[in-house]
Amino acid sequence: MTVDAKQKTTQAIGEWLERRISLKNKHGLHMRPAQKIVETASQFECEVHACKDALDMNSKSILDMIEFAAYMVNAAAADDNEFTFRARGPGAEQALEALFKLVDDRFGLE
Questions:
Q1: How many C-alpha atoms does 73 have within 13 Å on its Cβ side?
Q2: H-helix or E-strand spanning residue 103
């Protein structure tokens, strides 16, 4: 399913739920937000991934999220601050909502 952060509409896409994210914080995705994503995603039993272009990274792995953050720094330099969280399994919808809220609240850093 796809959940657009602006429209909050849901569509079925295989077994994964997806939520499009647009970064709003002034520093983009860096180490502290990456750690907060890992902490939030790890609260749920489901698989959670952060996806951008060809990258599909495990959101429960700090190493994966550091690599994803580095990739997003380059994307942000090109004014491309959007990516997708994907989740599947028990609690997937709740995990995506929690991650959306985390990003929407600017990771509690501003």
A1: 10
A2: helix 92-104
Query: Angle at the Cα of 103 (from 97 to 105), degrees rounded to 5?
Result: 100
Task: Parse the chain into domains and list their residue ranges.
Answer: 2-108
**CA atoms of 75 and 101, how far apart (whole Å):** 22
**What pLDDT shows up at residue 99?**
97
CATH code of domain 2-108 = 3.30.1340.10
* Helix axis angle, 92-104 to 31-41, nearest 10°: 150
Please state, in angstroms and rounded to a whole number, the distance separating the CA atoms of residues 18 and 15.
10
Q: What is the mean pLDDT of residues 54-72?
A: 96
What's the pTM?
0.85
Task: Take residue 64 and report the two structure tokens written for it.
Answer: 């994966």
Distance from C-alpha of 71 to C-alpha of 96, rounded to nearest angstrom: 21
